[in-house]
Amino acid sequence: MTAPGRQTTGSALSGTVIGTDRTERFRAAERRIRFVSRIMDDLVEVPGTGRRVGIDPILGLIPVLGDGISAAVGFWLIAEAARFRLPPVVLARMVVNTVVDVVIGAIPFVGDLFDFISKSNARNLELFRRHATDPGTSTTEHRAFFAGLLLILVAIVWLAWQALGWLLSTEITPPF
Q: What 3-state DSSP class applies to 70?
C-alpha cells in the first residue's frame, strides 16, 4: 500500500518512487544544488571575457581552509544526489570531478587558475539533473570513462615498474 500521491514502480524491493513526491523532492534538491553550484562556480561574469566565476577560486586563496570548504560543498552536493539513488557509476564520476577539483585546486597558484576553469559543481549538477529525472539514462559514457582511467593507471604502474627495473639494473661505479 502506498501513500496518496505516491506510486511505486518495479518490484517491491526496488523502492523506486515516481509521481508527485519524487518530482517535488527533485525540484527542491535541484534548487538547493543549483543555488550552491551557482555561488561556487558562476556567481559573477568576468567583464570582457563572457566567463563566469564563483567564490571557489577565491576560497582557494585561503590555504587548507578554503580547499576544505570547497571539498565539503562538493561532497554535500554528491550526498544530495545519492539520496535519489543515482547509479553508482554516476556517483563515482561525481566524486572524481570533485576530487580532481580539490586536489588540483590545492596546488598554490596553479590550483587557483584551475578553479577559474574547472566547474566541478556545475558538471555534477548536470549529472544529477540527467540521472535523477530519468533513472534509466544510459551510463555507458561513465563506464567508458572509468575503463579509460583504469587503462591509464595500469600504464602508469607499468612505466613505473619498467623505470624501477632500469634503475636497479644500472651499474653505478664509485667515484674513487
A: helix
